[in-house]
Amino acid sequence: MLRKINDNKERLIHIGLFLIAMISVLTTAGIIYTLISESIPFFQNVSLKEFLTGTRWAPLFQPQSFGVLPLLNGTFLVAGIAALIAIPLGLGSAIYLSEYAPEKVRKTIKPILEILAGIPTIVYGYFALSFITPIIKFLFPQANIFNALSAGIVVGIMIIPMVSSLSEDAMLAVPQSLREGAYALGATKFEVAIKVVVPAAFSGITSAFILGISRAIGETMIVTIAAGATPKMTLNPLDSIQTMTAYIVQVSLGDTPHGSIEHQTVYAVGLTLFVITLLMNILAQIISRRFREVYGNAR
Questions:
Q1: Residue in 161, 163, 133 with CA at minimum distance from that of residue 237
Q2: Rounded to whole angstroms, how far apart are CA atoms 79 and 213?
Q3: Closest C-alpha among 288, 121, 273 to residue 209
Q4: pLDDT tens per residue across span 134-182
Q5: What is the pLDDT of residues 232-266, one digit of tens each?
Q6: Where are the domains of the chain?
Q7: Rounded to the nearest 10 degrees, how much is the dihedral formed by the CA atoms of 38, 39, 41, 44?
Q8: Distance CA 43, CA 268 (A)
Q9: Which CATH number is 57-291 given?
Q10: C-alpha closest to that of 140 among 153, 123, 155
Q11: Which of 71, 218, 236, 243 is deepest in the core (most CB within 10 A)?
């Protein structure tokens, strides 16, 4: 009898955990369904070729244009600047915390570094506009008040904890025996970190970079506040630009009637953003599996 009761409990626990796991799957499926179903009417009026190759984005003005390239340009410009900030600083922080910092120092610095991840992004946005932008204006008087450089710098600061934490975890998974073998051959601490630990943790570090950039591509409030609302094809970081997420915020304010082609652009742009981030996450998984090193014991 007792065994039967325990079996029933285990079965209920199994079913409950399965249902909990299915929530995320069903949520993702619901998001995909919403994006596709709402985007279909848009692409019935606008050709996919025009959407993906057009260089003018003006769905809210006459004459209307639906080329998404200016939004893609602004998104990748901000993400590229963020990567230039976050990758070296995040990797450098990870190397220090993993290879140089004493245990007490690491346990103190790492939580402080990760506080950056808990700051609301709207606070980052006003930090960019009120602190970073005046500095840029001082250094480059020709810069616009709203510019890609300010937004990119702050987005880069925001994703440093992600890059640093994931990279450090990958480095800590490298066995101590590899380090000791390098020391036995006369390598310095820096050589061990750069030539042994980083290559051994390459898959995890690369995945951290890609996931960090993916997070930068999907950032909303910082670019909405600091980057501007001017979709254009430019590589000048001092210009005002508009990203995909910032456009979604602009249209979602409620000024466009539901069901209109202007409103449908939100879902078309959202679907594009979803596909980009999905591909980047798949790429991170492929790289992680392709170059993963499996060790017995780390440290």
A1: 133
A2: 6
A3: 288
A4: 999 999 999 999 999 999 999 999 999 999 988 988 898 888 888 888 8
A5: 899 999 999 999 999 998 887 766 777 788 888 99
A6: 2-45, 57-291
A7: -170
A8: 8
A9: 1.10.3720.10
A10: 153
A11: 243
Locus of tokens 């051959």: 185
Chain-centroid distance of CA 185 in Å reads 39
Q: What is the residue type of 4? A: K
Q: How far apart are CA 46 and CA 224, in angstroms?
A: 26
Backbone angles phi, psi at 58, to 5 degrees: -150, 65
Beta-bridge mates of residue 57: 66
pLDDT value at position 299? Answer: 46
Phi-psi region of 14 (alpha: psi -120 to 50; beta: other; left: phi over 0): alpha
* Residue 284: count of CB within 10 angstroms of its CB: 22
pLDDT tens track for 180-225: 888 888 888 888 888 889 888 888 898 899 989 999 998 989 999 9
Task: Report the alpha-carbon distance of residue 170 to residue 194 in Å, rounded.
Answer: 14
